[in-house]
User: Fold these one by one.
Assistant:
Number 1:
Amino acid sequence: MPTSDKSISTYSALWRATAPISLNAFALPAPELAQFLLGTVIFHAETAGMIVETEAYLGADDLAAHSSRGHTDRTKVIFGPAGHAYVYLIYGMYECLNVVADVAGTPGCVLIRALEPIAGLPMMYQRRRWLGPPKGLANGPGKLTRALAITRGHYGCRLDKGPLSIRHWRNKPDFKIAITPRIGISQCTDWPLRFIFDGHPCLSRPL
DNA sequence: CAATAGATCATCT
DNA sequence: GATGATCTATTGC
């Protein structure tokens, strides 16, 4: 299930094996964007990994979504145009990366929950201070931001190009997608908005 | 393996 | 003043 081509393990080779995604291609409803992002690759600071787990967060009706409480300093980017980063601090300790969905004026975003590490593994090990197998480097929302050195400083960044970018494969790998309820929330706990590569070893939690 | 405690702070009430 | 889209270490079977 991990990446088909194991010869692509350097940042530059991975960059060449992928292509940019236009900013307006991100402008989908959050559940659709969450599926679209599965299998795409995040690049930042000499490290990169493939997204294998996402969660969609909706608008006013979705009480688990930060944007359901309205437009504030923290949530304003979620109400903006798609393809930008919403990064926030959770539990005073970890940062979580979201991709803004939908058109400007309509709130919605996608939490990136797990990556398969592909390039820059030694750097990821150093940032994470992790001693286990590679699958444990970025298999959680707080872990992957550490591994790729993504912080609240990236709040509002565009993701189609620039230092923090998401690209898709020129030869798209084929994976089976499974859908489950979201993890770690206390509202709308049974909405089927978590999207995963079925059986992938780098998930934050199996199914 | 499962359950639980503790770390730590920006945001919102 | 309470809470939380988490993670790690530790305890107990």
Number 2:
Amino acid sequence: MAESVRLSWKNVRDAIHERILDSTYGPGDKLPKDARLAEELGCARTTVQRAMRDLSDSGIVERRRKGGTHVRLDPVTRATLDIPITRREVEQNDAVYGYQLVKKVSAKIPPSIAANFELSTPTTMLHIEALHLADQRPYIYEDRWVSEHTVPEIADVDLSTESANEWLVRNRPYSRCDLRFFAIKASEYHAKLLDTSPNEALLVMERTTWIGKNPITTVKAVSTPGYQLLTQIQGSAGP
Amino acid sequence: MAESVRLSWKNVRDAIHERILDSTYGPGDKLPKDARLAEELGCARTTVQRAMRDLSDSGIVERRRKGGTHVRLDPVTRATLDIPITRREVEQNDAVYGYQLVKKVSAKIPPSIAANFELSTPTTMLHIEALHLADQRPYIYEDRWVSEHTVPEIADVDLSTESANEWLVRNRPYSRCDLRFFAIKASEYHAKLLDTSPNEALLVMERTTWIGKNPITTVKAVSTPGYQLLTQIQGSAGP
DNA sequence: AAGTGGTCTAGACCACTGA
DNA sequence: CAGTGGTCTAGACCACTTG
């Protein structure tokens, strides 16, 4: 049984994954330590590490120092979502992008927005509403609050030309971002802005960002009917 | 300027990231090659590699052999979603999980389902409808088609006890999975099953899986009103 | 305190792919 | 075909975390 072939970390990953699939190591079981597997499979420990990181990133195993590597008890489907800035998304669909500022005013944040930021004391922020268009038709309605305290420069941005979405993504890195997806019934107001009917079902993407402990922005991106979020997973199984 | 400190790959990542944020390297720019950066920062090339892989995974840079490393032109928000099996999800909310099989019958797949699988020839599959309950109340309605050809064992599974969701996740690895999220208006049928009103807005998660070229299953998981998908991103900026 | 995963290094070779 | 990223190795040391 000579290890004549050079094993890549993907080979190693698949070898280990296979043992999990065929129940050599069942859910919750502890796997041999890296060094042991390296010896067994005939490669460097670093290579086993690389393979394990992939399995760990995919949610198949869990690793802890001293605790060892265990097969995860409950399988999860782990997907990666890419959310581009809205202009790019429109352009990638070969449509002409348009943008309209609907409203821009400083105001005291309502409790629901304070809750998004995990703030107890109500403060004043810049409230921005805007419409993103694709081929002249409404595409996404954006309802946003920006902290003037954390992002004072926002006052100097001409938001009637450039969307806050774009400016913030390009200029304000964040250290934490919370995301939420849910469905809402279109209100009269939504219907009017998005050129659709009340009670239509709309997908909403809500994003809240902080830099350190300081709130940056929270935004509800309300999509038009039929909008879909897509993603794809490449599993590490099969031929 | 002695490199007295031992640089970790995170230090290196942050150093490079910072140069991107402060526009030393702007969108689209080419970064120095790994070896050059390693020299510059005073670490091994492997360490730069590790840092770069992270930046690349986060969607901040793009790397190509021979092409070099470039700052991505359009920033994206990249999020990771974990979708557990429904039973786990319910239990993690400290609710009691329940399950009901609503329908199970072999039938010719409708064109929309064939489209999900990218199939042109209509075939027969097992059509399963089921209800997942949390604390006796409807939680998610599952509308699924399973390929009896790819997964003949499904015939022997007692689907009145065990959900197809769970059995498939535990027993059928896939090599590809397509995911879609969108909103729908509840139909009369949905309303009745989910104990809500017609026209409510519902979040739908649609998943389609294959093993190699062979279809395994496609499922629409229709949630109850108020359902939210959550995730969090840890950015690599700030203190 | 000891076991196990995480990281770093230095060097070699491989594998894409753009000029 | 040559430049650049990708991977592998062997060995050392570090840093968690649990028994």
